Amino acid sequence: MENGIKERNSNGLMEKRNWWKEDVVYQIYPKSFYDSDNDGGGDIKGVTQKLPYLEELGITLLWICPIFTSPMVDNGYDISDYQGIQPEFGSMADFEELLEEAKKRNISIILDLVVNHSSDEHGWFKQALRDSESKYRDYYIFKEGKDGNPPNNWRSIFGGSVWEQVPAEDNLYYFHTFDKRQPDLNWENSALREEIYAMINWWLEKGIAGFRIDSITFIKKDQDYGDVPADGADGLASVKHKGRNRPGIADFLAELNQKTFNKYPCVSVGEAPGVTYDEYDKYIGEGGYFNMIFDFHYADIDVENGSEWFRKTDWKPKQLKELIFESQNAIQKVGWGANFLENHDQPRSISKYIRDAAYQNEIGAKALGTLFFFLRGTPYIYQGQEIGMKNFKRDTITDFNDVSSLDNYPRAMLEGFTAEESLAFVNQRSRDNGRTPFQWDATKNAGFNEGTEPWLKLVGDHEEVNAADQVNDPDSIFSFYKEMIQIRNHSPFKDTLIYGAFRPLETPDDVIGYGRIGDEVIQILVNMSNKETAVEKVSGAILLNNYETIEQSGTQSLLKPYQAIVIRKDEENV
Ligand code: NOJ
Fold it and tell me: Does the predicted TM-score (pTM) go above 0.90?
């Protein structure tokens, strides 16, 4: 396939062919994937050793969360050397071996690019603190306080002020969008930007396939650094108001693209929260800053504000449907999407989206898989999703590791919730839910290692939920995912499922239905409720079904609770 050739599909849509549109991505949180040296934490060699499993599943691209040198305050999203490998993950030689071994299996690798901030242990920041005359002072954001208070009232994403006082200097503060040990880099400084571009190109020259770009919409702040009306009981206002996707960011992002990604045959996927649909064109349109961005509009359907878990919503399947349709339609107009159910910042999808606990099992997992996997865009599978891993339940806050869980707990109490209620919010939403050790088998520590206490407590259900039991079971969630990948990437319907247009279907409120239109019409129907629901009679070849049959009744078909089907429509009946 030639890259970038535009073709008109039978729906009349011009679609450009690109290799990364055909990929199926698997996201690895290396600390929790496989602990090859039995020290309690996962590592790069662990990923290499598990490549046969990933090949069996059928994925083609790995996104590996940060493996760079780091004090690990935010598990690697705090980098102290962008060109070094964190020793607990291994060495550069281990990474090169992984690249090579993956390539032999036709799997390419993208890394996580964290350039909104560094660690406070980065050499630049240490020099900036040590010497006010150093050029590195301007690599970060330092400001004077106001009347004994921080320079403004912005709240960081992980809670508390975005400002931290510089220890040796009265009335001087530095800025951090996230934790105080993650000082923001000052993108206004062109020398800093050039250093970042050189680093990115160094990695691309090494042969990686591209980057997932972390928190990139935070790199531009309103330069007035003005106060904002408080939006919480702590008297502060979220940094999002004046520090996310702000005017002027276009110049930084266009330059980033021109000086790095655009020069290589690589893929870039932006974590770009806060971008509205009418701006998607600039982000992912022709000549946009990135090839695709993650859309969080429906990932956060269960909470009013993605980072404040005590603001829960009582969402209904109809809303989820509307959000998915809106997202797909908006993306289809301008570019390409990055579809996901889970990632390392989200709870497990069956625990979040399947509201009846009786279906938080293989039926629910397969229904959700079907729902997201065939949307137009590149699918991203998060480790453990393919075997139906679920949320845990912790009895005490001390069992949590995630910085944002440790912040949300006291914040919920400050907002008036009891300790018990606050713990329940954290249990439900904690980022640790997706970070528990991967459940390889039913043995001690779920086969994550040879027995050393893992860095984070297991979910505890690995006797029922584990990869070893599922790999050879044709009815397992793993086999279902494998089949979805086969159908999307290797069946006669490949072109329609990858490049075909997205079209919403009219169905009852609780059923989410859509079509993919190419040389044939493929329909996806997912009952997102625990009630049997009638839909217009389905006709055509059933390509996938999470139940054994589909019940037909007169002019209708009856979808069982959380039943999901994929149908190739008969030609005379589209
Ligand atoms: C987004 C990442 O996905 C998250 O895990 C991290 O804590 C923040 N960015 C800060 O880097």
Answer: yes
